[in-house]
Amino acid sequence: MKTFWFCFLLFWSLPSMAKEEETDIHLATISTDYISKTYDLTVTLNNRKLISAIKTKSSKKKHPKTYPVSVLSQPITLVKAVGVTIISLKCLNFATSKGCDIEIEYPSNITIGSFKTFKAKLEFIKGKWQLTHNSKPFTKMHLISRKLLGLLIGIKRIEIH
Prior knowledge:
Layout: H1 2-17, E1 23-32, E2 39-45, E3 51-58, E4 65-68, E5 76-81, E6 84-95, E7 99-109, E8 114-125, E9 128-133, E10 136-138, E11 140-148, E12 151-160
Parallel strand pairs: 1-11
Antiparallel strand pairs: 1-2, 2-3, 3-4, 5-6, 6-7, 7-8, 8-9, 9-10, 11-12
């Protein structure tokens, strides 16, 4: 009888012991003309093809930073330079199966406290997850810096491709 219960419990716990398979999908590479470092933005999908996290990875570091869905409604720092957040991302009305509207905030001019917002969407289009701006998909985001005496004081504009 003990053997029966042991086998029953073992069989019953197998599905919960199995590790959920995850897949990372590359969304975009973020670069700037101020530093050579780039950042890759990816979305992690679980075995049901639902978003389980967003990850960022610097070209200078080995391991990505992972942001689970529970924190996506808060601003996430994507790019930092000289100790200052250059780009932060916030998901609005996030749904694991549909994506979200995205607000990317960046400083236009730090010296006067001026910030701008770039609006995009994370959406599932034609069988794949992608970032779009004004309904056009993009995979590259390049930041053009604003400098004063060679020092970074903000971002003039964001170019997407």
